[in-house]
User: Fold this.
Amino acid sequence: MEAGSSTKKIRVVVAKPGLDGHDRGAKVIARALRDAGMEVIYTGLHQTPEQIAETVLQEDADAVGLSILSGAHMTLVPRVVNLLREQGAEDVVVTVGGTIPAEDIPELKKLGVAEIFTPGSSTQQIIDFIRGAVG
Amino acid sequence: MTEAERWYRERYSASPERDALFTTVSGEPVAPLYTADALPDPARIGFPGEFPFTRGVYPSMYRGRLWTMRQFAGFGTAEETNERFRYLLGHGQTGLSTAFDMPSLMGHDSDHPRSLGEVGREGTAIDTLDDMETLFAGIPMAEVSTSMTINAPAAVMLAFYVVAAEHQGVPPEQLSGTIQTDILKEYIAQKEWCFPVEPAMRLVIDMIEFCSRRMPRWHPVSISGYHIREAGSTAQQELAFTLKDGFTYVEQAIARGLDVDDFAPRLSFFFNAHIDFFEEIAKYRAARRVWARELRDTYGARDERSMLMRFHTQTAGVSLTAQQPLVNVIRTATEALSAVLGGTQSLHTNSYDEALALPAEEAVRIALRTQQVIAHETGVPNTIDPLGGSYYVEALTDRMEEAAYEYFRTIDQLGGMVEAIKQNYPQREIADAAFRYQEEIDAGRRIVVGVNRYVDELEEPLEILRIDPALERKQIDRLQSARARRRGEDVEAVLSALKQAATGDANLMEPLIECARAHASEGEIVSALQEVFGTYTETPVF
Assistant:
């Protein structure tokens, strides 16, 4: 790593794939990450996987947090991961937050999702994880 | 020095006090004791069924008729949901409530690219009149009261419902039920929209006008605080923003030329029942009083029925935990009790597994049983407004009302609710409240059992409802075969007539009903309207 990179702000995209409008969690996390000193780009709602991948690339993000509560995670998350991979951005740390049933977690991790945060996760856990994974 | 002050000085301040957060879940400070000093002028409390309706909208309340137990349900295609409806009716439920899936809520057909993975997941998929007819197959639409939770494309779904009933031989005049239609809270909180704010408001007023003429037993709008609260607001914000949304619909309907007494009796409300027991009861009592006063004094209602705030309540999904889910039964029971003590007209109790997935049948049964225990075993419904006159509840009710008026003033200064929404004001207030609440939990100042205290490390995973991914394919096939059965030129004609009407200022309900009759799909109808109205994009704040 080049000198000075340790002081570079971590850049995180917080994204809402799919059609559900449950943005309480995404916005709380976005703000907590920002308060923790990260550069946060929140995509807003109803994003397609293509739009999310494009934002990640354009923003040169280190990590992307996908917030999804519509039950469509097994369709939408793999598409985001694959799009990032196809465009050479497989080093971007992908995390998922939302109502993800326990039995879907191993499969998401196998696809390349770094961590899944289910309801009840604290903002500090998420901050610590992203710092560790990007670091 | 009052006796209460003497007691505080001599007794309380000399006694131990736990190091805890003595505030409501909304952050409202709570005093150690409330006394007779807190009681308002008796006229502010009044009597049930009399202005200002603080104690309830009906003279005999639950002694006359219990609240309607109305469990919200929907998943998969119309066939699966129709089966669940019959199951619930068979178990003593007294009204139906339809949950639509995300594509239906956003006005997309099931085969739209953006619907991928979402069809039938969070509710039932309704694309065409055929789906609506299947949903109510074998259910007498003249007898059952139905609630439909849909907003941006509500006018389209109402048109489907009216035509489905027509095919059962039931005219619109006989239909009873509610359609949510509350678009303002979509921009504020739930975020399922199709059009910009102004044309969306026009559709709401079109529905109010149509129902005031043709559907006297139908509630065209259910002004909803539920989603505002779920998005993280406080109880005070829920109350204030919901009431202000309601006033905005009243103002626009009056501006359309309607007489307030012709439509206001059919406006209804929908509130959250969150976990802070007394605060919620105070919220419902304050809501009734403010609505009655403003309808009479500001909007000139003369018919008492226009002043009555009737409301549905749902327990707080946001209060449920994924950890130790059976504990949610207790949360839900407590919340349901607050709704009953607050005088709700109907109630949905959440199932204990809903922090994880759509509810499984067993969990739904327990949720319904919770209401039945409150209704038939606890004795709570035996007297009206049992907490009326409680020093604490009356003080909280007054405080809740003051907080609402403080918000009304701020919103008025911004130019009213539509302007406030465009300026992101309510959205920002809610995001701030949600963040404060999460900070309290993360810091351990606010305790959530099983989440940040009394944690069980080894939890057995719960058996949850999985929506079969094959249902998406099934629905797309249903839609495509419905499209194949209809006459394409008929559909083109009704859609073009709809667009024509939308460019002017005619009421759009009749053209929408024609679209339903011609089997135009929801997505086709919404797209046609979007060609005229445009779409909406939020500038999010966090």
